[in-house]
Amino acid sequence: MSSQDIPEENLPAEQGGAHGALGVADEKNPFADPGLPPHEHRIQDIDELAAKRSERNVALLFTVSMLATVGFIASYVAIPSDKSIFVFPIGHISALNFALGLTLGGALFCIGAGAVHWARTLMSDAEIADERHPISATPEVREQVFADFKQGAKESAIGRRKLIRNTMFGALTLVPLSGVVLLRDLGTLPESKLRHTLWSKGKLLVNMNTNEPLRPSDIAVGSLTFAKPEGLEESDEEFQTEMAKAALMIVRIQPDNIKDKRELEWSHEGIVAYSKICTHVGCPISLYEQQTHHVLCPCHQSTFDLSDGARVIFGPAGHALPQLHIGVSDEGYLQALGDFAEPVGPAFWERG
Fold this sequence. Notes:
About 30% of the residues lie in helices and about 15% in strands. It contains eight helices and 13 strands. The radius of gyration is 32 Å and the shape is extended.
């Protein structure tokens, strides 16, 4: 419904007014002010019942936000930090992180949606133009400000009292270190934990879905398989922490299609194993394109070429995915021949 369908006496009074005479385009002023377009009234402006409905919708969104915030607090208190749940198609994730993200995201979304709905349907949408005066100071004012500054600097004797000046700069430089020291309470130092994973020589590659060791025959050309180290179980207290570093993806490529020499040497019959953790911000990679052998991180679209050393071919990732050197055990199972040669995941400042 538009304002053309409503009797003129039912329309609300116009807000604001003209903002000066409209310009006329000519040779000197080819971009004349066209003025404001005619204002179109919304249904809420002319129908109180529609306005009440919008009001109730906004109130509902804000109420849902309050309930989500209560849910956030309840989740933080009630859900153990080591509890995991299965969420399709993501897989097993931390129940606490999932609940906190879902409730906090819902609370923030409902506040934003309610505010937008309020502004779009109930707040005034009349466009009002207001002439602005120049914001630059006059030359006289500028000269006076510079003169006052020079006079103040002279009276403070900061140029002559070098001891005061230098100690003041020293104090201002050191005081932010107090905040840096407080960062020590964020947790224990990582030491060398970021450089090592559970993978070591002889560890079998275990299928994440079946929890069974993998044989070369289990990996078909063009398939994508996710694996974990032998001995790591979901019931372990450190499962999420260790999987954040040791998560592995396995693909099989025709050896003739592998371009990188080291990748071919570290593979087994075209089976290559790479870290599943994106080198941008640590998201799990889960999208594989069979024809191009490209894998895509769904978070920020970083793309890696698994046939060429998993180098970055698109996106914000800073370096290639680390490869795991693999072979076959005496029993015919795929096994690791060592740990990753470089730290997995995003770069960090201590990394050489």
